[in-house]
Amino acid sequence: MKRRLVLTRVGSIAGFGVLAGCVDRAGNAGNGDPGSGSNGDGNGETTGPADDDGSTTEPVTDTTIETLETACGRTSEATIDVDLEARRATITGSVRAPNPCHEAVLVGVVAENGTVTVTIGVESDGEDVCMECTGRVDYEATITVGTQPPAVLVVDHEHLEETNEVARLELDVDEE
To answer: Where does this protein have compositionally biased stretches of type Gly residues (predicted)?
Structure first.
């Protein structure tokens, strides 16, 4: 079983322009000032204004996704578990694929109007020989949120150029 861990920082996502509303034309997150925050890796990428404790006010500060298992199947579902104290949401699910020789990938994260939508898709794992059946890719994604978490988390699955909502969770967050 192949496992692959993909670590995507908001700065990388911003470079691809999928974090709507949080990136200026120069590719800087936050208030447009390149010095407004840092993800701590020293490469100059920004994630928005940092609080005194080093945390950020951006809705999403970090994401990871890992393929857990692949097999034949048609399941497309997800569950969201949130730990607001740890500022983390864990999404576990199964996304459909053309065949089992695929891995789960984070297609995009969009933060808009208090809702964060995470889109999960698949990409080929590069195997030359694969079973001929509809695939199911089981995954676990982790979303780290800033000090102002979103009010709603949505998970979409992308399959054959279609995107469908598979999970939605309204969070009980206090407005500050």
So the answer is: 30-45
What are the helix and strand counts (H, E) for the chain?
1, 9
> 171 by DSSP, 3-state: which?
coil
pLDDT at 147 over 70: yes
Beta pairing partners, 72: 135
Instruction: Let me know: does 105 contact 139? Beta carbons within 8 Å.
Output: no
| Centroid of chain to Cα 133 | 27
pLDDT in tens, 52-72: 444 445 778 899 999 999 999
Return the structure tokens found at 110.
């969009």
The first and second tokens of residue 4, run together, are 């692959």
Contact between 13 and 21 under an 8 Å Cβ cutoff? The reply is: no
Token digits of residue 158: 């992308």
* Spatial contact of 12 and 27, defined as CB atoms under 8 Å apart: no
Q: How far is CA 33 from CA 9, 47, 48, 139, in A?
A: 18, 11, 9, 36
